[in-house]
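TL;DR need C-alpha cells for one chain.
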Amino acid sequence: MKALGQLDFKSNAIGFLRLLLAVIVVWSHSFSIGQFGYRNFDPISSWSHWQFTAGELAVGGFFTLSGFLITRSREHLDSTTFLWHRILRIFPGFWVCLIVTAFVLVPIAYAHEFGTLHGYLRLDPWLYVLKNASLVTVQTSIGNIGSNDFINQSLWTLQWEFICYLMASIIIGSSTAPWRLRIVAIGTASVMLTIAILIVTVPDAAYGQINTLVLFLYFGCGSLAYLTRDRVPMRWWIVAAAVVATIATGPTPAWRVVAPPCIAYLALFAAANLPIKGFDRKVDLSYGIYIYAFPLQVLLFTFGCNTWGFVPYFALSLAVSTVAAYLSWTFVERPALSLKALHSVSSGEL
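>> reply
TL;DR here they are.
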C-alpha cells in the first residue's frame, strides 16, 4: 500500500487494533489497581519517568482512529444523522455501565466489606448514575466503597471524545473541502503549540490540561490524516522514524508534542497493513472492555485477587471484562445501533 488513501474501509485492521488497545488499557490498569510494580504503575510509566502510561498511549491510539473514522463519517452523513449515530454508539452502553456499576458491582463490594446490603441505598447510588449521565464525570465514588474510591477512572475520556465528535460535525459540515483541511490543520497545529507552551511555562500545574489537550491532538492527527489520506505515504522508514522519535522523547516532557503524531502514524499504518481484517464485523468488544474493565478490576482487588500475582490478576481482569463486553454488545450496544434505521441515512454511511 503506497498511500493511506488506498485503505479499504470495509476490510481493514481497525477493529482488531481497537480491541488490542482496550487490552493494553486493562494491562496498564492492572498495575495501578492491583498495586503491582514500581509506584504501582506499568513499566512504560517507569521508563518514561512518569510522563505517560501504556494505557494513555492506547487511549491516544483510540482517539487517532476515532478522528480518522469520524471525519469520514461526517463527510457522508448530514449533521442530525451523524449525531444520532454517535449518541447511539456512546450513550446506551455508557448509561447501562453506570447502572450496573451502581446497582450490581458496588453493592457486591459493599456486601463483601460489611456482610450485608443493609444501608447501601442510603449512599444514594442513583446519584452516581444521574450526576455522571451526561458523560461528564461529576461523582467518582459511592461512599468510598471498595479498595479504590475511584470507581471507573476510564470514563473521563468519553466526554472529550464526544466533544471531538461535535467539533468534527461543525467543522466538516460547515466548510468546503479545502477549508476543512485548513481549519483542521490550523486547529491541530494550535493545540500542539499550546501544549509546547504549557510544558515550558507551567509543566506541573497544567498536567491535567495538557493530558486533555493531548487527546485533542491525537484526534486532530487522525482527522488530518483522513483529509490528506491520498498524500500520506505508507512507508516502513517512516514507521522506524516514528518509533525512534517516540522512544527518544519518551522520558522527557517533549513526548506530549512529538509522540502523538508519531503514534497516530503508527496506528494508521497498522490499520492499513495488518493482515487481520474485519475483526469486529460481527462482535465489537472494544468499547465494552474499555468501560467495564476498571470497575471490575477494582472489585477483583476488593476480593484480594491481586494477591494471586500480576499474571493471574490481569488474566482474570481481562476474562471478566470480555464477558461483560460481550453482554454489553449483545444486549445493549448492538440493539441500540439497530435504531440507526429510525433516521434516514445517506448511502455513504459507515
